[in-house]
Design a protein that fits this description.
141 residues, alpha+beta, two-stranded antiparallel sheet, 4 helices
Amino acid sequence: MYVDCCLPEIVSQLVLHYYSSMQNVKEITETIKNENPLKFDYSDNQDFYEHKVKRLLTECTLGLKPANIWRGEYEATGGYLIVKKDGEVVCYHIYDRNQFENYLFNNTRFETPDPTRHLFGNIFQENGEFFIKFNLQIRFI
């Protein structure tokens, strides 16, 4: 796990809260921080959940794909351009990583995928146990 060893548990909390309340990434992360399901030590005022979610968003934006094993190699090495709805172009250089991560964190939301695509929402059985197929999509607000 190149991104974080706690990521499966954190993503499961993100998905649970998303399907419970339909909030954006920042709001869900704040809720999880307050609940602290992984029992992180906050005595040093570190925001573990926000850091880990920002890292996930960055990795997804720069190359992490669901169909491939992530080796931590970015597709974009110099920077990243974002074109806003009003036509404004925002450029983030890799050395502006904090600004880039904050932009992603403050401007993304979860989205429910089309139920016919990737069998989303289907119940299936594997080794005698039943599961529900959930997909995670993150979009810009």
